[in-house]
User: What shape does this take?
Amino acid sequence: MERETARFPTAAGILFGLGLGGFFDGIVLHQILQWHHMVTSAGYPADTVQNLRLNTLLDGLFHAATYVFVVLGLVLLWRSAHRSHLHWSGKLLGGTLLMGFGLFNLVEGIVDHQILGLHHVNETVPRDQWIYWDIGFLLWGAGMLIGGWMLFRAGKRQTAGSS
Assistant: This one.
């Protein structure tokens, strides 16, 4: 078996993780808990029907983008797995999923929460507490990224050992 065809598609797992991170954020934080929407801190608080409509539209576009990440991850995984019989450690997929999820939290937390100020993790608490939720979100993302990287490396060693 050629080494290239047996290689785990790391990008597929990261794309899956990015998509799942986005789904978690959109479904749990935007819809279920209703802590924030896409632009609630950018001058469009969800306190009028017009602002809620805009936020709902932007939340939907956000979900569409995360859906694209998952589809691309599926396509990459299918193309790799469809070629030949493979022996991959499950830690490779789990690690890359965590890496993508953590990467989503870090990028979204830095760009949307801090740089652009579009929204914050929990806008239902007093404003002076928003930063603590934002920092927790970043730490959670960093922890998943680091844990995922460690799991991925262990999976690479395990896969190499089974060849």
